[in-house]
């Protein structure tokens, strides 16, 4: 069972992907919803809104405990902002899981949003579609952070221990390979075994 | 290769606003209150709908310096309204870098025949609708997000409820039809055939659908969410109330936890005075806003 944080934002799109992949899933709004999950997705949306609601409904501590348990977490866009250790433009607090800085709205406003493709060598994926929507940008990763994807000289995807974070949205396309790869490599861990075993 | 202004990017931003509250603001200070309360976006306006209604006259796009000042003051997306059919106001708002343009019946329409051809803009548009056919016409013109019209500036949710139910009923009816009946239904509706086909097959609009118009309390917001809205716009309801920050925060919480009556009860406590509100039947018909546009 994979949880999708449904406090605000693009949770419906992630749920659609999990449904297409046949993966059992659950919306997470309150601490009790985290019980029994094997992994968690934090969607895009407004990171300021999510932080306030996490605080208001006592979700921060349960999420920290979930993270400390070593279960895999994937963050996209605002999710990546919550997961980074330091946030700029403007500075704001975060859950602080990945030793990297992230700059909010690094490409400008919606007029400057764009779609392109990304490739991920570590997960043996060639060009897959990626939407950058008022996207943030990673900066200054510490050496133990692995870079998963890049756009020109910008870091767009990182992996650190059981945490994966990307600044773009593969879930807004019909191409489910990124989620499939995350399930295979991060949730299940063993690269040769099929995803189905994750869900039992 | 990088592409900009695609419909996927436009509806993608609308997806990111789901489960959230978009608040009308008239000053940078109000914008910061909205952001502090947890708004997912603000709508930059010169006057909230309740004041437009009270003061009368021609209501136009907000002054550019106000839109820019509000944009400077927050990190969340900023929307702004232009008049129905006034594509030059829309061009100006796009050049200011607003994140969403609302082609809105709250302002005085500039064209009684045509809405804006929205597909030619890079900036996404949200439009109001009172029925499924109207929603599909706006989507046909390139709208990336729909909302109910409701009756703005009244603090009375009845029209938003009516419009949401009309859209839901329209979707259910299309789903019940066989393929052979869809063309004649599209003709009767006056809606683009391919969009009628899409709705009949998928059982939903091709873009997100939010609620707007007359939402004044956390319970109003949750009502619209339970009726199928994916987010809510709150106009006059916040800054025309006794304690805007408290009420705004409560509406944000209610929108996330819209299915949880215990939380709704808790967040609805001690909010101070709600805006007074107007009964729709007391408004002269020519002053109703929802009939603007078609």
From TrEMBL, chain A:
GO CC terms: cytosol; glutaminase complex
Source taxon at top rank: Bacteria
Keyword S-adenosyl-L-methionine (UniProt): no
Family assignment from sequence similarity: Belongs to the glutaminase PdxT/SNO family.
Residues the entry annotates as binding L-glutamine: 45-47, 104, 133-134
An annotated GO BP: pyridoxine metabolic process
Active site residues according to the UniProt entry: 77, 169, 171
Quaternary context: In the presence of PdxS, forms a dodecamer of heterodimers. Only shows activity in the heterodimer.
CDD domains membership: GATase1_PB
Gene name linked to the record: pdxT
GO-annotated molecular function: glutaminase activity; pyridoxal 5'-phosphate synthase (glutamine hydrolysing) activity
UniProt key word Hydrolase: yes
Native species: Sulfidibacter corallicola
Protein name as catalogued: Pyridoxal 5'-phosphate synthase glutaminase subunit PdxT
Record's function text: Catalyzes the hydrolysis of glutamine to glutamate and ammonia as part of the biosynthesis of pyridoxal 5'-phosphate. The resulting ammonia molecule is channeled to the active site of PdxS.
Catalysed reactions, as listed in the record: aldehydo-D-ribose 5-phosphate + D-glyceraldehyde 3-phosphate + L-glutamine = pyridoxal 5'-phosphate + L-glutamate + phosphate + 3 H2O + H(+); L-glutamine + H2O = L-glutamate + NH4(+)
Keywords for this protein: Glutamine amidotransferase, Hydrolase, Lyase, Pyridoxal phosphate
TrEMBL record, chain B:
Reactions it catalyzes: aldehydo-D-ribose 5-phosphate + D-glyceraldehyde 3-phosphate + L-glutamine = pyridoxal 5'-phosphate + L-glutamate + phosphate + 3 H2O + H(+)
Domain PdxS/SNZ N-terminal: 7-212
Keywords assigned: Lyase, Pyridoxal phosphate, Schiff base
Root EC class: lyase
Keyword field contains Lyase: yes
EC number annotated for this UniProt entry: 4.3.3.6
One matching Pfam family: SOR_SNZ
Binding residues for D-ribose 5-phosphate: 24, 153, 214, 235-236
Record-annotated active site: 81 (schiff-base intermediate with d-ribose 5-phosphate)
Pathway entry: Cofactor biosynthesis; pyridoxal 5'-phosphate biosynthesis
Function of the protein: Catalyzes the formation of pyridoxal 5'-phosphate from ribose 5-phosphate (RBP), glyceraldehyde 3-phosphate (G3P) and ammonia. The ammonia is provided by the PdxT subunit. Can also use ribulose 5-phosphate and dihydroxyacetone phosphate as substrates, resulting from enzyme-catalyzed isomerization of RBP and G3P, respectively.
Similarity comment: family membership: Belongs to the PdxS/SNZ family.
Name of the protein described by the UniProt record: Pyridoxal 5'-phosphate synthase subunit PdxS
Organism for this UniProt entry: Sulfidibacter corallicola
Organism classification: Bacteria, Pseudomonadati, Acidobacteriota, Holophagae, Acanthopleuribacterales
